[in-house]
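Just wondering, does anyone understand what follows?

——
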Amino acid sequence: MRLAVFDGPEYYQRRVLRSRDALLIHSDDRLEEFSCNRRAAREVASALTAVGEPLVGVGQSLGGLAAFFVHWTHPGIFAGLLLQSGSFFHRGTDDYERSFRQFGRIDRFVDGVLKGRGSPEKIPVTMTCGLDEPNRVNNRVLAEALAAEGWPLRLVEHPGGHDWDAWKPVLREELPRLRRRAAG
């Protein structure tokens, strides 16, 4: 099953992924386009739909949020999601992030997810998050809400922080498991 990797070029530059059989999603303005931006999600969804096969979405930080948002707003593209340290900002857990320009847009989306509004097809999801990072709380809260709604979800908390050194080994361990679950 092919991958659709948000911030894909960086995954390859940092040698996190080795397979060239992946669709690399890049943004010149990721702070804007990867933060629950409906226009950007529509463009990505259109490009991925044209591939014509089920994909596994992969992303870290805002890329994890963007992959999840694309699935939520355009279901049927992904057969599974690997979300690493997703930036699932919410006023209940991340008040310190309020200065982030798109905090309100992300907060509204996450709030709707936590309340179960508009839930799409429930696909296998693996969420990973470092024990030493602030996103750990919002990832836990989202994982618990999705699991309560019946999503086939695996939450992996691992040593490390919000960085490539923490994400790389966990991705290499969890991606094969997720691919098997997504293949069904």
